[in-house]
Amino acid sequence: MPKLRVALLGAGRIGSFHARTIAYSVPNARLAFIADVAGSLAESLAKELEVERWSDDPLEAIERPDIDAVVIATPGNTHAALIQAAASAGKHIFCEKPIALELPEIDNALEVVERHGVKLQIGFQRRFDSGFLKARDMIRKGEIGKLYMLRSVTRDPQLPDENYMKTCGGLFRDTMVHDFDIIRFLSGLEVEEIYASGSALVDPMVERYQDVDNAVVVMKLQGGVIATIENSRQAVYGYDVRAEVLGSEGAIRIEHSHETPVTHYSRTGVCEDHVYWFIERFASAYRAEILSFIRSVIEDTEPAVTGIDGRKATVLGLAADRSLRTGKPVRVETL
């Protein structure tokens, strides 16, 4: 069987990681084109990975007849337009979150995808992490009994720069969407109501964009199950992602913080390192999600994370935004 010919759109930090995954770890796919509006990034990555063709125009990759699929890792405010262009050209699509920041844009993109019959997988990599997968399997098997509560924590090591803050859509739709998605993934339940509280404590710059950098969300899920989410834009010790699920027969904790599995014991105490950023924490999950996408295209199966999953996470982000502004709980169905 000929290899799936893939174009990378966006050669930044996560795009470069995906490119190396396709080039070195996916035997049934070939990285055939790299595009980035910063042409020097595309050229440099293409040279490193021995990819013959590159461009500073993502549409050039989309329009090529010798490309079967695209991986979109461009800034979030470009995703919806690129999804629509790729779907219209008959290309299968892997896209980093978000599809878009507003529901009309998301719905337009999903309609084009459905009309042209292509695959669309959204980049919620936590679903492919071994810890989250094991926890979900245990919950499905009833090993902790009836679900009572879930908790998800995400803390970034540093605040993004101001250029990123201008277009990211805010904490709830940029960072917390991962937590919204993983709560749905672990519980198998939909969120019915959200209450959000937050503050801008790290940098006054955040307030200029009507955003917060530390926030807590309380959610009521189907059947009365309670979930809480905690996000911070600054944890000086490094990237911190954790989750806990409590049930009638026990609890599950998902936590991975060490960059190396070494603990040093000495007269001065105990010392362990801590993973600093998201790629180091979720490297294997990022590889697994690309492998899953390629497999779904080749085997003609539904992607593991659909466009509807991406939409539902953004809906919850919008509900949290509304709750923060009004100071009141928001029924998700009202959106």
TrEMBL record:
<dbReference type="GO" id="GO:0000166">
    <property type="term" value="F:nucleotide binding"/>
</dbReference>
<feature type="domain" description="GFO/IDH/MocA-like oxidoreductase">
    <location>
        <begin position="132"/>
        <end position="253"/>
    </location>
</feature>
<keyword id="KW-0560">Oxidoreductase</keyword>
<dbReference type="Pfam" id="PF22725">
    <property type="entry name" value="GFO_IDH_MocA_C3"/>
</dbReference>
<dbReference type="InterPro" id="IPR055170">
    <property type="entry name" value="GFO_IDH_MocA-like_dom"/>
</dbReference>
<dbReference type="InterPro" id="IPR000683">
    <property type="entry name" value="Gfo/Idh/MocA-like_OxRdtase_N"/>
</dbReference>
<dbReference type="InterPro" id="IPR030827">
    <property type="entry name" value="Myo_inos_IolG"/>
</dbReference>
<comment type="similarity">
    <text>Belongs to the Gfo/Idh/MocA family.</text>
</comment>
<dbReference type="InterPro" id="IPR036291">
    <property type="entry name" value="NAD(P)-bd_dom_sf"/>
</dbReference>
<dbReference type="Pfam" id="PF01408">
    <property type="entry name" value="GFO_IDH_MocA"/>
</dbReference>
<protein>
    <submittedName>
        <fullName>Inositol 2-dehydrogenase</fullName>
        <ecNumber>1.1.1.18</ecNumber>
    </submittedName>
</protein>
<dbReference type="GO" id="GO:0050112">
    <property type="term" value="F:inositol 2-dehydrogenase (NAD+) activity"/>
</dbReference>
<feature type="domain" description="Gfo/Idh/MocA-like oxidoreductase N-terminal">
    <location>
        <begin position="4"/>
        <end position="124"/>
    </location>
</feature>
